[in-house]
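User: Could you write out the 3D structure of this protein bound to flavin mononucleotide? I've included everything you need below.
Assistant: Certainly. Input first, then the structure.
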Amino acid sequence: MTDDSSFDEMRRTARRRLPRGLFDYIDRGVGDERALASLRERLGAVEIVPRVLRANSARSITCNLFGDICGAPFVIAPTAMAGLIEHDGEIAVARAATRLGIPICLSTQSVISVERLRDAVPDATVWMQLYLWEDLDLSAALMRRAEASGVRVLAMTVDTPYGARKEWNLRSGFGMPFRISRSSVTDVLLRPGWFLKAVVPSLLGGGLPTLENYPREMRPRLLGRATDPRVALRGNLSWDDVAWVRDHWKGHLILKGVLSPDDALKAAECGADGIVVSSHGARNLDAAPAPIDALPDIAGVAGERMTVLSDSGVRRGLDVLRYQIRGAEAVMIGRLPLWALAAGGERGVAAALAVLRQEYIEALDFTGAGIAAAG
Ligand SMILES: Cc1cc2nc3c(=O)[nH]c(=O)nc-3n(C[C@H](O)[C@H](O)[C@H](O)COP(=O)(O)O)c2cc1C
């Protein structure tokens, strides 16, 4: 365990190694980044009154999520284009997660396909995140592919009617497709190490990185055409769509991106098995409340009926416990494994997860398992 595994240090290393456009895509929020600032502030403000003389060396940190015993109460959050940090980045993250016994939730917009992840890491617990596409038949086909690949938990993202406008990405040109300009090309040229690790292996394999979960002929590409309208995010996403997904998915269904108790109740009525109380890492709505504040009311109304997970802003093991004492069974982690991947590849992710686990154990031990909370 070294200082290199602290979130800030990994983030600094990632900043040095990645093109600025990619770094910003991962790091930043939207608008004036008020939601981003407040989610960290509110999370950090949660104090835990320690209860003393309650050492319990027999306590377990495992957690049962949808029938799978996880090595710790964390799940790797779905993050689009993680495979652009390094070639096959999602595989590296999955290997590290599997070593710790925690699930990885693969994004619809991952660079590698769910089949390739399954083949590369057969013992991984893979969840699949679903961005519903305009063409529902194509989404149904993706769900069938996920099921055939052994996925039992589908996380349908409900807080993203379309990709949020990210000003710095518009400026830097980073995205799919990548906008070529003098500054965007310079940005890449300044990071030849990244280009060698992330892009050259794909080129040697016959092409640029793309999003492999998309139907072959419609895959968004780093260079070239814009997204095919049939696989654009479903703009008029509604509860009818949730009902449609429920009808078409036999496994466990989670709705990701719920921040209101009413929506949580509706999710339960629609037959969801779980929710993720999340502000999408403050990447969508700059007025979104910090999930840590929204969580207690939601857990109060829905915790008995569904598995309640939460995410956004987790940087340390103490944050995991903060979410748990506010009502979450487990948390998702988004940026943390990405910085670890950029800083140290698969070993970097494994080290960061080991540190998170150790910090979580210390948080339990030093609080007497977190009995009371304020903040
Ligand atoms: C680079 C990046 C890409 C993301 N892509 C997706 C995605 O494809 N689908 C999704 O539901 N959430 C996506 N998210 C949100 C994460 O799943 C998660 O909710 C968020 O990152 C949690 O906050 P944290 O990064 O502070 O841990 C993305 C987040 C990041 C940082």
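The first strand starts at residue 47 and ends at 49.
User: Perfect, thank you.
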